[in-house]
Amino acid sequence: MPSIRQRKTDRGVPLALLQVASGEVQDGKSFREVAKSLDICHVTLYRFHKKRLRLESQGSHTPPRVGYWTPKKVFSTEQEMLLRDYLMEAADLYYGLSSKEVRKFAYELAKNYNCNFPQTWAEKEMAGADWLTSFLKRHPTLSIRRPQATSLSRATSFNRTNVKKFFDNLSAVLTKHEFVTQEIWNMDETGVTTVQNPGKIVARKGTKQVGSVTSAERGTLVTLACAVNALGNSIPPMMIFPRKKFHLFFTSNGPPGCIGRANGSGWMQEEDFLVFLKHFQSHTKSSQESKVLLILDNHSSHLSVEGINFCRSHGIILLSFPPHCSHKLQPLDRTVYGPLKRHINSRCDNWMKTHPGTTMTIYDLPGIVKSALPLAATPSNIQAGFACTGIWPFNRDIFNDIDFAPSQVTDRPPPEPSTSAAPTPTVASSPPLAASSLTLAASSPPLAASSLTLAASSPPLAASSPPLTASSPLLAASSPVRPCVEPGTSSSATPFSPLSIRPHPKAGPRKQTTKGRKRRETAVLTDTPMKDQLEAEKKRSNAKKSKAKTKINFGQKTIPNKKQKMQASSDEDEAQYCIVCLESYSRSKEMWLQCCSCKAWAHNDCTDGSAFYTCHNCESD
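RESULT FIELD:
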């Protein structure tokens, strides 16, 4: 590491003061007179004025350099600022660079623009660790952070188009029914497991591995459904246990007033959601004369026709979020469930310490939730969740460009109508597109080949002409940036542009497919058109299931063959477990079904009996 020289004096004159003094000298005053009036050294003023006249005679408008500078600096100040902005833009797009990637990228920039760099950079083909440390000190707005894993669906689905549709629906509902604060509710589910994530402890320094006791290797999941309103109140939660039958002792130690359900998977099903709606209506006292708004995600269990009919008859207006946007729009996800998980983990740690050698079961979780939920679902947390999502107080402009930056990776340029009178410009002569104009949603149709802008099927832009973002400090091609030449830095004929060396990622044309689950969007589920659409989908689904069930009954001899194949190998028998109740195959004498997606096995009684069975893990994905 090179030694960093510490400045021991405060000498030096600001550039602005020297420019004012030089102007007064140019007006006819003497050097000593001006220097004495402004309290600066007359020799310093003389040298600055002489350099300024020399640069002006050469046609340069750049002021002379004053103060201290680093003679062995690889990049100039302007170049480092461009590199800093590029790194921040890449992080905003969720495609940030690691420390080693930044060092390699710095070497590529220095090599491409003929900058003077140490020989060790060429030997290792990356910048040194000392350069990165100094670079971060010179730019305190940058820091090395551990990113949070975000799925591609969430990063791309949270775009301006989907969010605008949601706020349009919310605005229409609020205007039509004139809801007040206590009538706006949010409902969501979360998972509570018997294996906690241990918190930090005090241990011996230098030990490579520090452990903490948990109940088991893999925990059992219990679903917790909560509902809160914008005033800060909440209703008793509902817990769903992975059991075939529910007993009252399951929730005997749970939060006061809570209810429970049980099914084979422990996940929310359509029948369980209907029970929750009845529980919700009994606490909110909603009716046709006193309606309430319930905002929730568009999970398949929330789209049951029976539940929607119950809501319509009891004055509950259902509004769904856009798909894969709950991490930004769901109040419970933003401010309640995070503290709840931390408090549950802390109380699970305490439970393991007070019950040494005992395995935690799902019947111990209600007591833990009873003590943790009041600490997380506080009125201040709930109100902050509604405020930061823009639901209440209503604010459709709560999100800025940085929040929508990850979705720009899959944006396409908007189509422009072609006119016969105006000639069609070529791609080479068209100006670079700004990222702020690329705001088409994921459901936008593909562009035509005759569009004035680049088509969706066109190859990505070349390195010599990268796309410029709206927040990028780079100027247009007609006014190139002139890098400031400093000692130790070589001037280049082309403007310094990190985007030309490493463009930001851009997704290719999207493939249109009809396979998989139906794509949903934000909608008022209790409206008549949406209700009729869900009823039609339900009829088609029931028809397919009944048709497939008749085929299975006709050829029922083929199903036990799968079990006979499993019995051929004893090793495979021991490795097979039901993904719902976790019972070993060797201990079971029931009929088994296999998931169509992940090929995992489950009891026939633990499933819905569908011929094309899909497990709850694949449905959640």
